[in-house]
């Protein structure tokens, strides 16, 4: 009889545990049923909760990715002989001024094509056919000045055909007539250095011939 | 023990730690990474040490211009780095730190290299540099000066530095 209150207390504890278990089960059931009631697939929710970010993709997220090609300068200039005379380093002496190109080859930017005012509506691209220049048409103004003929600037027997080579019509079956050979780039009069080399060579030849002939003493 | 701040780092749950490969074929387990949700700027760095004991090791990803300092499995610092170019490329592989020198002055380039951590015997080091866009080094790893100071203070000789190659190298 003395253990009745303790027994009652034990019974009450067991009841509480049972009810708390039932409550937890009901909560879990609700958590499972509510997403399906709302139309959310449970499998996807579980997968999303289990999915972890990839470590490498996290690294890629914080990076500006690969270094751009070209246009790289070193932060350190190469040591120069006069650097020791100049004293302290140039790192703390003012703003950064790149001095040395790292890459051996210089990358040239392609020349910018100016926008052509062709009168056509702007289609967003540059046409690759450049419109030809409009030449002035019509009559040229009459020549005013000294006469070109006898008594004028040009001699009397002057003919334009002496100056301007005749123009032949371009026909694919007729080969063009052979013109004058292109002017040689070698000047007719040698340079002084060439003269000197030639003279030294002649003297050397003469000396060798004299030695070979045994002429060692002058008469 | 300070609870992990989820706004600072991304912690992987226990038992599901990812492993990242190093150039020598080994793997390292990652417990947490710093949370950086945007591309970092040149010269900027993030440092958040963890109150746990662990070996310091460094992962340098040349393809992403990134350095990550780890204490055990936790990343404690990250920044963008400068590295060598075609003429003087940065060596790749896993290097133990040979020695440290707080104030080094390069006689070859007549330049200050504060907080130098020597990786090779021919002069490749991690050192403080002016990290900015469009710059490169003569083969060293350049890190921001304040980052270099913190790294210098936590790292010790024989700690490993893994340098992953730049796949976009021409």
Produce a short descriptive summary.
The complex is a heterodimer of chains A (219) and B (170). Chain A is mostly helical and 219 residues long.
Average pLDDT value of chain A? 63
Number of domains of chain B: 1
Question: In percent, how helical is the residue content of chain B?
Answer: under 10%
* Series of secondary-structure elements of chain A, N-terminal to C-terminal: HHHEHHH
Rg of chain B computed from alpha carbons, rounded to a whole number of angstroms: 16 Å
Parts with pLDDT < 50 across at least 5 consecutive residues of chain B: none
Enumerate the strands of the largest sheet of chain B in spatial order, edge to edge or round the barrel: 5-8-7-6-15-9
Biggest interface, and residues per chain? A-B, 38 and 47 residues
Class by alpha and beta content of chain A: mainly alpha
Coarse morphology of chain B: globular
How large is the share of residues in beta strands of chain A?
Answer: under 5%
| Beta-strand percent range of chain B | 35-45%
How many E strands of chain B? 15
Can you characterise this structure?
The complex is a heterodimer of chains A (219) and B (170). Chain A is mostly helical and 219 residues long. Helices cover 37% and strands 1% of the residues of chain A. Chain A is built from six helices and one strand. The N and C termini of chain A lie far apart (164 Å). In chain A, 3% of the residues are buried. Residues 80-91 and 103-107 of chain A have low confidence and may be disordered. Chain B has 170 residues and is mainly β. Chain B has one domain: L,D-transpeptidase catalytic domain-like (Beta Barrel), CATH 2.40.440. Helix content of chain B is 6%, strand content 40%. Chain B contains one helix and 15 strands; from the N terminus they run E-E-E-E-E-E-E-E-E-E-E-E-E-E-H-E. Chain B has one helix at residues 145-154, and strands spanning 9-11, 19-21, 27-29, 32-34, 45-47, 56-61, 66-71, 74-80, 93-96, 99-106, 111-118, 125-128, 135-136, 141-143, 160-164. The radius of gyration of chain B is 16 Å and the shape is globular. The mean pLDDT of chain B is 89. Chain A binds chain B through residues 52-56, 58-69, 71-80, 83-84, 89-92, 96, 98, 102-104, and chain B through 10, 12-13, 16, 18, 20, 30, 33, 36-40, 61, 63-66, 68, 78, 80, 82-83, 85-87, 105-112, 129-130, 132, 134-138, 142, 166-168, 170.
